Amino acid sequence: MEAVTLSSRILAAAEQRNESWTADHIALCEIAAPPFGEGPRGEAFAARLQELGLLELTTDEVGNVYGRYPRSGSGPRLAVSAHLDTVFGPEVDCTVTRHGSRLRAPGISDDVAGLVLLLALAEHLGEAEVELPGELWLVATVGEENVGNLRGARKIAADGVQGRPLDGFITLDTATPGHIIRHGTHSHNFDVTLSGPGGHAWGDFGVVNPSLTVARIVAAVSGYALPTAPRTTINCGILEGGFAPNAIPQQARAHLNLRSESGQELGRLIEHASQAIAAEIATANAGRVHGPELGVQSEVSSRPGGETALESRLVRAAVATAEALGQPVAHPYSSTD
């Protein structure tokens, strides 16, 4: 394999192209890519890959975008990826503003920065005419953020690329230089929606109250005694319901996100949360004076954790690269593709 080093020539070339990559960064960021709405950004990214000479450009049925580096050999198959989606809904303004050398906008870092790095990688390898012994695929995935439940990465893990498995997978999804994510955080989501007849806060008091019950569920789940180690977290990222202070809501919703470095500890937390949810719903139903029981709609999703060994070739290569750039190396836990 032809060696590509961080020579002064390459660094100088990167500096010369900084403004063009910044233009890509801004253009991609300003195309909204909410969960399940990544299509327009994916199309723009695919167009840039085509301009850079990548081959076999495809978009699969879930929305992942693929391109093969043209000077690829027949050896091991590697994918380098970044994700298209952001946590922000379609109503959020993604206009980029510049503050000196800093760009600010929703999603500018997570993960448009990763997408631009893929474009830079394609451009650098192409201009240097690097011949690779194996296949290199650049991939923009969908569904990395929470509600997407890794649907893009799960598709690749299940089916590979073009129906063939990969030998390696790298994702670019951290804003901190030197952070090499080799531990996948275990996570679990409870999305609970409760419904009732609603009514007047005074005149209909005694019917089930979805908002009060959801509030008690959140309080009960968050009462879990979190350990100092392994690091374990509880979050209620969505809490909604009702429309007027003197009206009993007909519906209320809470979305709970549970995470841990340990699958065993997360299992205990999931059991606690499941029991708390069931107990608070039963208490509310038993305490009603009149009217029907609570309607319950609950959706659960999980992301299994994992670990890439410190001595693996991928991790060793990443560590060596960070050290060559003078970056302090750390291996924090994270949840990503």
Task: Describe the model.
The protein has 337 residues and is α+β, with helices and mostly antiparallel strands. It folds into two domains: 8-173, Zn peptidases (Aminopeptidase); 186-303, 2-Layer Sandwich (Alpha-Beta Plaits), CATH 3.30.70.360. Helices cover 33% and strands 25% of the residues. It has a five-stranded mixed beta sheet with strand order 1-2-6-3-7, with helices on both faces. Strands 11-13-9-14 form a four-stranded antiparallel beta sheet.
Assembly annotation: single chain
Residues in helix, %: 25-40%
Major sheet: size, sense and barrel closure?
5 strands, mixed
Low-confidence sequence ranges? none
Overall structural class, as computed from helix and strand content, comes to alpha+beta
| Helix and strand sequence | HHHEEEEEHEHEEEEHEEEHEEHE
Question: Could you give the order of strands across the largest sheet?
Answer: 1-2-6-3-7
What is the CATH homologous superfamily assignment of the largest domain? Answer: Zn peptidases
Q: Using DSSP, what is the number of strands?
A: 16
The coarse overall form would be elongated
* Structural domain tally: 2
What is the overall number of helices?
A: 8
Radius of gyration: 24 Å
What CATH calls the topology of the largest domain is Aminopeptidase
User: Beta fraction of the residues?
Assistant: 25-35%
CATH architecture title of the largest domain: 3-Layer(aba) Sandwich
Sequence-ordered SSE layout with sheet pairings:
Elements: H1 8-16, H2 18-29, H3 39-51, E1 55-59, E2 65-68, E3 75-83, E4 97-99, E5 102-104, H4 112-128, E6 134-141, H5 151-159, E7 168-171, E8 183-184, E9 186-195, E10 199-200, H6 210-222, E11 232-241, E12 247-248, E13 251-260, H7 263-287, E14 295-303, E15 306-307, H8 313-324, E16 333-334
Parallel strand pairs: 3-6, 3-7, 8-16
Antiparallel strand pairs: 1-2, 2-6, 4-5, 8-15, 9-13, 9-14, 10-12, 11-13
Helix pairs in contact: 2-4, 6-7
